[in-house]
Amino acid sequence: MNVNPIQLFDVESSTFTYILVADDERTAVIIDPVERHWERDLLHLRRLDLTLAYVLETHAHADHVTSAGRLRELTGARAAVPSGCGIAPAEVQLNDGDIIRFGANDAIAVLHTPGHTAGSVSYVWRGNVFSGDTLLIDGCGRTDFQSGSATALYDSIVGKLFALPDANRMWPGHDYKGQSVSTIGWEKRHNARVANRSREEFVAIMGALNLPKPKLIDIAVPANQNLGLPHGA
Ligand code: FE
């Protein structure tokens, strides 16, 4: 059994990128790659002699630009993105319940988990969930822009992610405190925003956050809806 997933980090935006290595150890998928790290990510693939089958996005990010378009061009991988995120150039538009097959035997299940953005998805693979900005370790994504909804986020976390087995490892889209991985069971019991809270309490917490607007949002969202490539490219 290989060590999986490979977890990579962007310090500037505190974003995680994941490389999932198929059981055949020849094929990989990458989730939420960051533009400024495209060379690093390619070196990982080359070092392990992996063919990149898919570039996946969990949503159209507001805080960094994706390298999905660039990696697709350089490797021949296909881009697969949530259908509700307005990322038109991707080859595959994913919906709830879809299965992404790669390698000899691997399959990733797509869970539509709206709330951070209306189109956000989480990916489930071999006892791991990649929750994007839906569920973070001891936190969750914000819900105050990009068609965000605190009630939808609560239902996605409690109704869909917390319905996964407690032992499922949970890999977040960001972390701001140096944590890297949790489990569904742990977050169910200890997540400060949602554990033992009603939907009403959660909505009140989210409504009182008063976060500043992300600096990059006006650049990042349109860029990410074009897979990080300049418009017209
Ligand atoms: Fe986000």
Structural write-up:
The protein has 233 residues and is α/β, with parallel strands linked by helices. It has one domain: Metallo-beta-lactamase, Chain A, CATH 3.60.15. Helix content is 23%, strand content 27%. It has six helices and 14 strands. The strands form three sheets. A six-stranded mixed sheet has the order 1-2-3-4-5-6, covered by helices on one side. Strands 7-8-9-10-13-14 form a six-stranded mixed sheet. Strands 11-12 form a two-stranded antiparallel ribbon. Strand 2 and strand 3 form a beta hairpin. Helix 3 crosses helix 5. The radius of gyration is 17 Å and the shape is globular. The relative contact order is 0.15. The structure holds fe (iii) ion. Fe (iii) ion (FE) binds next to loops.
